[in-house]
Specification:
By secondary structure, this protein is an alpha+beta fold. The chain has a domain at about 80-170: K homology (KH) domain (GMP Synthetase, Chain A, domain 3, 2-Layer Sandwich), CATH 3.30.300.20. It contains six helices and six strands. It has helices at about 5, 45-75, 80-110, 140-160, 170-195, 205-215; strands at about 115-120, 120-130, 165-170, 195-200, 220-225, 230-235. α3 packs across α4. The radius of gyration is 21 Å and the shape is elongated. The relative contact order is 0.14.
Length: about 240
């Protein structure tokens, strides 16, 4: 693949809608391919189709690699010495993130207290004590963007990739409970029908919550599609 083709391929951002959209949706059948009249093949159309297919495949591979990397980091065993150094590193990430966010709140003239914790081998910073819906946005889009900016601030100081999780006004905690309930309902439906169920598109955070909940219930799941329309499919046993 040429450098020009690679530069044309960019990732998307999950856009999430809560409420009534939290339900299983049927898989869509691929449209029938148009029949070709006789004559020589159109090489221009073939080149475009090959380019689109390559972009689709590479997008799936990149997303799968990102999810696999996060899962590998979550599951990798650590020694006692590594645990201590890792704990110190994560606490440092939390401190850097808190300093960055405190400055941001001051600039925006917003009130809020900062809580720092370490959960599931990642730093967690929460802005609490105030209604800051403007920092959450529709479906958590602003929160996701702010989390990425905070991770960049940590990377700038440490030179290491951060998996820090940011929450504002308990949004992610509430969303986690909703997704765990959705996963339980979907698992029950799949067990009863014996058929796979596809959920609506979700952010990486939401997909991870659903995957964990499905696995805890004894079924398996997988992510399909391409950002920003990547979604979870719950599979029968």
């Amino acid at each position: 693949m040429s450098e020009t083709e690679q530069s044309d391929q960019i990732g998307g951002v999950d856009q999430t809608h809560q409420g009534d959209q939290d339900q299983a949706v049927p898989d869509e059948a691929a449209p029938d391919e148009p029949a070709h009249d006789g004559g020589a093949p159109d090489h221009g159309d073939q080149d475009d189709a090959a380019h689109d297919e390559a972009a689709h495949d590479e997008g799936d591979e990149d997303d799968a690699e990102d999810e696999a990397e996060d899962e590998a980091e979550d599951d990798a065993p650590v020694s006692d010495g590594d645990t201590t150094s890792n704990q110190d590193r994560l606490e440092q990430e939390g401190d850097i993130a808190a300093d960055y966010l405190e400055e941001l709140l001051d600039i925006a003239d917003l009130d809020g207290d900062l809580d720092i914790d370490v959960e599931a081998d990642r730093a967690v910073v929460s802005i609490v004590g105030a209604d800051l819906q403007q920092l959450v946005g529709d479906g958590g889009q602003v929160l996701d963007a702010l989390q990425e900016l905070t991770r960049l601030a940590v990377y700038r100081e440490t030179g290491e990739r951060s998996r820090l999780m940011l929450d504002v006004s308990g949004h992610r905690a509430t969303r986690r409970r909703e997704l765990e309930q959705l996963a339980a309902t979907t698992v029950a439906s799949v067990q009863e029908s014996g058929e796979r169920a596809a959920l609506r598109p979700m952010t990486p955070f939401e997909r991870k919550v659903v995957h964990d909940a499905v696995a805890a219930a004894g079924l398996s799941s997988e992510s399909e599609g391409v950002e920003p329309r990547r979604y979870v499919v719950v599979l029968p046993s």
